[in-house]
Amino acid sequence: MWVIISILVVTLSGALKLQFAYGFLGSHVPLTEFVAAAFIAYAAYAFDRGVENKEDEKRGTLFKKALLLTAVFATIGAFALYPNPALVVPFLVAYLYTKGIGGYRLKGGKGVKNCIVALTWSLGILIFLGTISLPVMLVCLFFFCKSFVNTVIYDVRDIDKDKMAGILTIPTVLSRTQVTALLLGLSLITHMTVIGAYFSGFIAGIDVLLISSIHSTIYIIAYCNGFEMFRNALVDGEWILYAGYIILRDCIL
User: CA nearest 155: which of 187, 122, 107, 189?
Assistant: First the structure.
């Protein structure tokens, strides 16, 4: 049940990331791209959960087959809505991350897997935006850093399990204080950069950026230091929360 909820949250958040990326650049995401982004987010996450790896928790065979089958349909749907050959790239990276080739996977330790997951998200956004400029690169860098921070936060939850399995992650190598400082520093630099870009006229959406900076600081400190409740809602679901804020703001104003 929790896996299904998590998949749905990640799927909607994936589409909303693209919506906010367009918003930061002062435009609106086309509906077809929004849906295609949701399909891609679902396919990547479902494929990762459907392929059994030794470091992942066990799941029923029928459930794994259902995840893989729906991931295939989601992939087909994404290409039907947005027939861009470049979309093969994030799918290829996701495959190398989850399954690998010849026993080699990109799901490496010491921050490698965190960078790969973050790169997949930012590459997908860049492909949908379809252009390379300073504002676009700043937005993609912002989402890369946000995704990197969030994946490390989930590794904090799995410290004991990863240590028992001999898996090296950033939280198993660094102390909680060091991880907290690392993520807070990265988050602060990232937010200050894009907020500075706003005042330079490159980026829009200062209110969301400010909320994100405060929200990120709160959940980094909380989840790096033993707090466990509402992780999916506050971390994976952060863009859903920001979308709720936008709707409420627009209704009031």
Answer: 107
